[in-house]
Amino acid sequence: MEFDPMQYNYPSRRNIVYAKKGMVATSQHLAAQAGLDMLKKGGNAVDAAIATAACLTVVEPTSNGIGGDAFAIMWMDGGLHGLNASGPAPKALSVEALIRAGYKEMPRLGWIPVTVPGAPSAWAALSERFGRLPLTEVLTPAIEYALKGYPVSPVVAAAWDRAYIMYNSQSKVEEYKYWFDTFAPGGRAPRPGEIWRSPDHAASLERIAATGAKDFYRGDLAEKITDFSRKYGGYLRGEDLEEYSPEWVDPIKVDYRGYDVWELPPNGHGLVALMALNILKGLDLPEWGETGSFHRQIEAIKLAFGDCLEYLTDPECMKVSVEALLSETYAAERRKLIGSTALIPRPGTPPKGGTVYLATADGEGNMVSFIQSNFRGFGSGLVVPGTGISLHNRGSSFSLDRSHVNCVAPMKRPYHTIIPGFLTKDGRPVGPFGVMGAFMQPQGHVQVIVNTVNYNMNPQEALDAPRWQWAEGKKVYIERQFPPDVASALAGLGHDVQWHDDTASFGRGQIIWRMEDGTLVGATEPRADGMVAAW
Question: 90-130: per-residue pLDDT in tens?
């Protein structure tokens, strides 16, 4: 990867980091250092990724947990590999059952949106196929932080407090008491610098490490999860956990102005980013000026989301193929819809046919793009008694509209928002990148790639640049550091531009690029407690 950091400069708020032997970039410094420790012990990029991911369930529980899902793209042994560790709905969960129970839409809290968690299976599968160190060693930092405690970092503390306020309405409901016992034992969220620990969390991680995650799906942990579900009317059962396994998949790509941008195939919505980039690659964005460039990026994202919200779900249930949605012919048709004013996104007719992100690299050429999530904050608000395991609420993405492609069904995986990205050029790895944050994620991916490829920004500049976020219709949120004159000009083009003070909603990204000489260059998100740990 080559870039001229003087060609197009937004003021960087952090220094770019260079290294040779290894690098870990993520949103919390203790987790980044845990991953780097694995590299120094002789582990590879996969060992570093697993250690970082497990540690993040402890030091950033506001965004992910043992009871969440995970996805990964990795360059290992000279090739690109993908892993989908998202779980399906329980066998007993159906749209008919929910409608009979009086639901009009999927709830966000409680047992109903809990699908089979995939994160522990991802750690075990990655370790078994590509890891060099034993899983018991790789999970040790996370276990120690959970057992002995750690000082909570500022951005995490703020998110924790927001979650406490949100869940507080459930504080008198019995099944939610375990969340408060675990994450608010003093009757409030921990403040920045305060020590938080969870011995139950540590014990669960030890069981996962010792059994290669088998205990989570078939052993004592599985029994505790299903007993908890049965007691409070949940649909998840032992057979749902026992029959689950993650899926190795082939990543999908588009050629974007000489670079191959890779995402995982559905049920994740990396397809949104690829469709938007496929539209944008036919436009010379810099020649349109700053306002014109932002306008076209926003319109491309709206068109891509218009399609994916209509067509994307579990690939077994999709009625339109990925190949059709990424075809050059369809991209050209959608590109023609971008005019001089803001549009209302609608799906086209293709030709028939709460989250943490981390990036790792080692000195041998291996690189990993990894993401895991409990979806919205801590997830469902449920913590399995005696385990410290917070369960996600990924099923809340399902629809209860029987005619919709993403309608809930037994053993079906929902539309998924967490997506890892990867960049290659001429068949060689450039590196992993990602921007966490629900429906902001593909928008963040597009902005990072455009900043990198069209505007030649270095990784830190690409992350520091002020962001926009399409919300719905013509509504576009912008950060406070967004240029006011450009914001006014976009409003003049018909966009409903609104300043937004919630910095976290604009995503939190990480990047590691490998230079031509093998030097690693990394950057972390200024919107989080992030760190690039380098060796």
Answer: 999 999 999 999 999 999 999 999 999 999 999 999 999 99
Least confident of 12-21, 275-284, 458-467, 514-523: 12-21
Strand 259-263 versus strand 252-256 pairing type:
antiparallel
Q: Band the pLDDT of 26: cuts 50, 70, 90.
A: very high
Q: Which string of DSSP letters, residue by residue, matches 498-514?
A: EE---GGGG-EEEEEEE
Say which residues have a Cβ less than 8 Å from residue 119's Cβ, sequence separation at least 6: 53, 57, 64, 65, 66, 67, 68, 69, 70, 85, 372
* Beta bridge partners of residue 468, listed in sequence order: 478
Which residue is it, tokens 């290294």?
19
Name the class of domain 252-353+436-517. mainly alpha
Domain boundaries, the chain: 21-248+356-397, 252-353+436-517
**Are the CB atoms for 26 and 58 separated by under 8 Å?**
no
Phi-psi map region of 369: left, alpha, beta (phi>0 left; psi -120 to 50 alpha): beta
| Dist CA 232 CA 253 (whole Å) | 43
Please choose, from the candidates 50, 65, 60, the residue with its C-alpha nearest in 3D space to the C-alpha of residue 30. 60
Q: Is 69 helix (H, G, I), strand (E, B) or coil?
A: strand
DSSP bridge pairs for 320: none
Please state the rounded mean pLDDT for residues 163-177. 92
Which position has the token pair 């220094």?
Answer: 15
Which of the following is catalytic: 57, 355, 387, 503? 355
Residue pointed to by tokens 């120690």: 144
Whole-angstrom Cα distance, residue 49 to residue 309?
31
pLDDT above 50 for 430: yes
The pair phi, psi for residue 274, each rounded to 5°, is -65, -40
Cβ-Cβ contacts under 8 Å for 298 (sequence gap 6 or more): 342, 468, 470, 476, 490, 495
Distance CA(62)–CA(243), nearest Å, equals 28
d(CA 499, CA 485): 13
* Annotation marks residue 57 as catalytic: no
Q: How far is CA 100 from the centre of its chain?
A: 33
Question: Full-prediction pTM beyond 0.85?
Answer: yes
Predicted local confidence at residue 454, as pLDDT? 96
Q: How far is 395 from 384, CA to CA, in rounded Å? A: 18
pLDDT level of residue 534 (50, 70, 90 thresholds): very high
Answer yes or no: is pLDDT of 485 > 60.
Answer: yes
Answer for the pair 456, 7: CB distance below 8 angstroms, yes or no: yes
Q: How far apart are the first and last CA of the chain?
A: 20
> Partners of 433 in the beta sheet?
421, 511
Residues in contact with 227: Cβ distance below 8 Å, sequence separation at least 6, in sequence order: none
